[in-house]
Amino acid sequence: MTELYPSMPTGPSRRSTLRAAGGGTLLLGLGLAGCRSAVSEASSDPSGAGAEPKRGGTLTVAVNADFTPGLLYSQSQQSSQHRLIFNTLTRYDDQLRPKPELATSWTYAEDGRALTLRLRDDVTFHNGRKFTADDVVFAVKNLQKPVRAAQLRSTAAAVTGFEKRGDHELVLKLAHPVNNLFDLFEFMIITDPESAEDAVTGRKLIGTGPFVLKKWSPGSGLSLRRNENYWQPGRPYLDGVELRVIPQADALISSLRSGQSQLSFNVPGKNLGAIKSDERLSVTDYDTGAGAVYLGVNTTVTPLDDKTVRHALAWAVDRERLLAQTLGGHGLASAAPWPTSSPAFTEAHRTHYSHDPGKARELLRSAGHTKLAFPLLHLALPGETAIAESLQYDLEQVGVHVTLQPTDPATAQKKLISQGMPALWTLGHGFAQVQPSTLAVSAYPFNEAKNTSRYRSDEYTDVVREAWTEPESTAAAANALHERISRILLDEAFIIDLVVRGQVQVSAAGLHGVTLNKFSYLNLDDAYLV
């Protein structure tokens, strides 16, 4: 038996403060290491060192899209409130080591086919009901339902049995070993079973988290108040949180500068340069690699069913220009999905495709094409529109005309899940920042069993499932599997990665203690305003 008794994480392990206005060097590389590590560029101390935590106040978070209740159990752009209302079983530290949250410790069976969880016995839901092992059983079974559209459903489905040992100890029995069970535990929010159906309509959101839902006003945002019975003593410091929907970039930035909002992760990259010169605000890069900008390709659309044409698109895009001009230099230009912290990362994969329009035109001619035209779906948000326009320009230079299709985030997510995308689309993806196998068994664009591009390959399925079900493989064997997955992704090019990036936080100089988990769930347990 392998027993683990980890300690609680203490928040960001590495932050440095730089005076952007004073000409200091700005650290722009992302995806270095860690779930909450960050590099800050500001005139204030974003870590809060030297400032005494202060109780009280309401934090207003400016978001560019509203909460979508139907996507509650999946990870999307509208997931920031997850860790405010709910908790998870565990959370990763900066080295992908699981640490306790609602689970206090765990023991793996030697064959990897069972895991014993010991749970906190001092936790209550917002409705006063005690948290028990039954709630974990419900959470796992809930994600197994296709209707929940949970990216980690395959991992949840690997749990085929439950053995309760009292109210606060539970054995999960697995159909086969998996190496991403703790990805599931960080992803899976623990919700009140009795109100689960009300949750997906937005009528009730009942969890064990630091804040309680006061009101959801569709189109305007969420209003939360402090949970007076939170299981972490003395937390949260804040009295409340308002998630305020501001879809227009200029209005969102004005809200931050005026102090009406104190936090946002939705400032377009091209606007960040101006923000850095404002001493009232700080800019923080979370170097998780928790997201990536990509160009998606529907492989059932002719001639995109020819990978030579897909290769041409991959060579056509100027990733460095996209990074510098559209994303404000925040990210890492990359042809592969992996952040540098991932064990699957290699420099050769990152640079596999560079900007070579001549080569792109040559490949198109070899496939019998000189002019092509496709629709390109993108989110109808300022930053995402700028990305789509950058891609439109690059593709036009090689004879590929694209017509932009601006789409609201909820509709785009539904199309992503249902394989309803047009010939081309550009969005962001996550799931490369955790176990590499999770990307290919969980993320909709990459899922080996059913992906948005409608790409299928026995070779891809075999290597992904081998990587996923070999938790005890040696580092050399695991790296060999990662190499095979990367080679398939680059050669088949059904997803064309462009820039790997983490979240970019803009916050008031007086806000401290903000963290994110690996899936970009906002954690305000230790946040305070001064």
Characteristics of this structure?
23% strand, 6-stranded mixed β-sheet, alpha+beta, 530 residues, 9-stranded mixed β-sheet, disordered N terminus
**Major beta sheet summary:** 9 strands, mixed
Average predicted confidence as pLDDT: 89
Helix amount: 25-40%
Strand content: 15-25%
**Helix-strand category:** alpha+beta
Tally of contiguous helical segments:
16
The total count of strands amounts to 26
Q: What's the overall geometry?
A: globular
User: How far is the N terminus from the C terminus?
Assistant: 48 Å
Sequence stretches where pLDDT stays below 50 over 5 or more residues: 1-37, 39-49
If you compute it from the alpha carbons, what radius of gyration comes out, rounded to the nearest whole angstrom? 22 Å
Biggest sheet strand line-up:
2-3-15-22-14-4-13-12-11
In short:
The chain has 530 residues and is an alpha+beta fold.
SSE map:
Blueprint: E1 2-4, E2 17-18, E3 38-42, E4 58-63, H1 82-85, E5 90-92, E6 98-100, E7 103-108, E8 114-119, H2 133-144, H3 153-157, E9 159-164, E10 169-174, H4 181-187, H5 196-199, E11 211-217, E12 221-226, E13 240-245, H6 249-258, E14 263-264, H7 272-276, E15 281-286, E16 291-297, H8 307-316, H9 319-326, E17 332-333, H10 347-350, H11 357-366, E18 372-379, H12 382-396, E19 400-407, H13 409-417, E20 424-429, H14 436-442, H15 458-468, H16 475-492, E21 495-501, E22 504-508, E23 511-512, E24 515-516, E25 522-523, E26 528-529
Parallel strand pairs: 2-3, 4-13, 4-14, 18-19, 18-20
Antiparallel strand pairs: 1-7, 3-15, 5-6, 7-8, 8-10, 9-10, 11-12, 12-13, 14-22, 15-22, 16-20, 16-21, 17-21, 23-26, 24-25
